[in-house]
Amino acid sequence: MGGGGQLTEPAEQVNGRAGGVYTWQEVQSHCSRSDQWLVIDRKVYNITQWAKRHPGGIRVISHYAGEDATEAFTAFHPDLKCVQKFLKPLLIGELAATEPSQDRNKSATIIQDFHTLRAKVESEGLFRARPSFFCFHLGHILLLEALAWLIIWVWGTSWTLTLLSAFLLATSQLQAGWLQHDFGHLSVFKKSSWNHVLHKFTIGHLKGASANWWNHRHYQHHAKPNVFSKDPDVNMLHLFSFFILSLCIPLCYSTYFFLVGPPLLIPIYFHIQIMRSMISRHDWVDLACSLSHYLRYLCCSVPLYGLLGSMLLISFVRVLESHCFVWVTQMNHLPMNIDHEKHQDWLSMQLHATCNIKQSPFNDWFSGHLNFQIEHHLFPTMPRHNYHLVAPQVRALCDKHGIPYQVKTMWQGFADVFRSLKNSGDLWLDAYLHK
């Protein structure tokens, strides 16, 4: 389902009636961990064994077991013809002629209108990337990091210059995060393999993380945004359990823990998890890329600050970057609906879980164009420089079907994060006082 991994070879023929005819009730009964079917374009596929080999990870494709996965399949794979050969051995039949193309209570009209919009957007060339845009973006990332090191090499390691250098490094890291996001979504090159190579470079060498780890988590978020037990961004409750107490006391403390606590722990937590994941998966390529990042950093910083000073500096840089990352990502999702699986069509599901931040040159740059979160979630393989072109068409479609299309200022987005924290704090306080 997710297009983030690399395809290797088609799966073997699975057991099943290749010419079988099935009802939605039959398909929906195959949704357990050991028995998984799904539907794409009315064709029924048995993915039970293939899910373990799925390049995007077992979980993202399993989230659609027993469901119609047509819209998600189309959204995640830029080259559908290439992927079809991997589906062929999994085919066990098709839906009965009397069955609707959509499952459960999904709107056939919304699905058809969104399909028409996607075809129109493709014909307008909005899925074609401008190489110069991404070359410039990579260049400015490298320039920011080079400038950060040059300042302290030439003018010394005073507190003022160290803070300035840390700010530039954090900015470079944040922008590298958005660039690896582009490559991870296969939105830069026509050939997926080129995207994979550059993704490993940007997330590994520039940021010290793992491409495969990111793919397996992030595609789940896109497949089922803000859905309990399916969106890993929602399932991080164990990480924030340390801060539950802050939600049982006044908002000022809750705000403090949100702004200071998570950004302090998230970099440490995630980098430990990433390293453990790479080692347990024997993902030596990602591990080598990640270690090259830290080796490069230590070579630049240890002669100036020593080992301890270097560790403190990189921790401070991570904290600065994490603050920006938390704000950018959470103001698009945290104030929106977070609920259990509702089995909605692609357009409705994504719009209920995302909102946009108003466009401006600064907002576009600062957020990596994720201020157009709605368009990104609807068309994850679209190059980000085209989001503003498709946005009016998406909004018109939402207006037609009465689906809320929310656009806020960045300050309104920040305020909504505070409001969500207060609501959570009130709930926890009530539970704490009446336990």
From TrEMBL:
One annotated Gene Ontology cellular component of this protein: membrane
UniProt-listed SMART domains: Cyt-b5
Coiled coil segments of this chain: none
Annotated transmembrane regions: 239-272, 293-317
Keywords: Fatty acid biosynthesis, Fatty acid metabolism, Lipid biosynthesis, Lipid metabolism, Membrane, Oxidoreductase, Transmembrane, Transmembrane helix
Chain ranges of the Cytochrome b5 heme-binding domain: 19-96
Primary enzyme class: oxidoreductase
InterPro entries with a match to the protein in the record: Cyt_B5-like_heme/steroid-bd, Cyt_B5-like_heme/steroid_sf, FA_desaturase_dom, Fatty_acid_desaturase
Domain of life according to the entry: Eukaryota
Pathway annotation from the record: Lipid metabolism; polyunsaturated fatty acid biosynthesis
Classification via Gene3D superfamilies: Cytochrome b5-like heme/steroid binding domain
Membrane topology, from the record: Multi-pass membrane protein
Molecular function, one GO term: acyl-CoA (8-3)-desaturase activity
EC number(s) per entry: 1.14.19.44
Gene Ontology BP term (one): fatty acid biosynthetic process
Classification via Pfam families: Cyt-b5 (PF00173), FA_desaturase (PF00487)
SUPFAM superfamilies: Cytochrome b5-like heme/steroid binding domain
Catalytically driven reaction(s): (8Z,11Z,14Z,17Z)-eicosatetraenoyl-CoA + 2 Fe(II)-[cytochrome b5] + O2 + 2 H(+) = (5Z,8Z,11Z,14Z,17Z)-eicosapentaenoyl-CoA + 2 Fe(III)-[cytochrome b5] + 2 H2O
Cellular localisation: Membrane
The family this protein is said to belong to: Belongs to the fatty acid desaturase type 1 family.
This protein's name: acyl-CoA (8-3)-desaturase
Organism of provenance: Gasterosteus aculeatus aculeatus (three-spined stickleback)
Taxonomic lineage of the native organism: Eukaryota, Metazoa, Chordata, Craniata, Vertebrata
